[in-house]
Specification:
6 helices, 9 strands, single chain, TATA-Binding Protein, Alpha-D-Glucose-1,6-Bisphosphate, Chain A, domain 3
Length: 177
């Protein structure tokens, strides 16, 4: 279990092991609630915070470290070999100041603009999945900003997706109303 903003590399790794990833809105409380509801065996968010219900339902960096060390000991491989087997994914992250009264309008414009061509998830903001990557644009829960995350196989592709969205969104933030 993870949130809609976390790398899609998880989906590929889970599929290799006959599992699937469920996603929630951003936030530790949302992930923990989803884990309880779906009886998930592990979860967390893209910031590296691992939630392991066998220990507790909160992000716990020490549990995360213990799980990684256990995997390394079990495989007898260096961490470089373990990480080399993971799918290649890179992210670009942006923070855009946006008056609170404009956030809903900007998200509506993104949904309309990109929803005509690509799959859209409205679970938390607007997440758009394209053939070469994805992006999520959502209003912050704590300040008057929009947060944009883009992911692709390479950093340049993630930045290209993010920069394209960013240029459109900036004009919509400045727009009328």
């Amino acid at each position: 279990m993870t949130n809609v903003s976390t790398t899609h590399a998880l989906d590929e790794v889970a599929a290799r092991h006959g599992s699937r990833v469920r996603r929630t809105r951003v936030g530790e409380a949302n992930v923990a609630e989803g884990m309880r509801r779906h009886q998930a065996v592990i979860g967390g968010e893209g910031n590296g915070g691992v939630i392991y219900p066998a220990i507790n339902f909160a992000r716990d960096s020490l549990v995360g470290i213990a799980l990684v060390l256990h995997l390394l000991a079990e495989r007898g491989e260096p961490i470089s070999a373990v990480t080399a087997a993971l799918p290649a994914c890179e992210m670009a992250k942006y923070r855009l100041p946006c008056p609170s009264h404009r956030i809903i309008e900007v998200l509506r414009r993104v949904r309309e603009e990109y929803g005509r061509r690509f799959g859209v998830n409205l679970q938390d903001g607007v997440k758009v999945t394209m053939p070469d990557g994805w992006f999520l644009l959502r209003g912050s829960n704590t300040e008057p900003v929009l947060r944009l995350v883009a992911e692709a196989k390479t950093q340049s592709d993630a930045a290209r997706i993010g920069d394209d969205v960013l240029s459109r969104v900036r004009s919509w933030i400045a727009g009328p109303g």
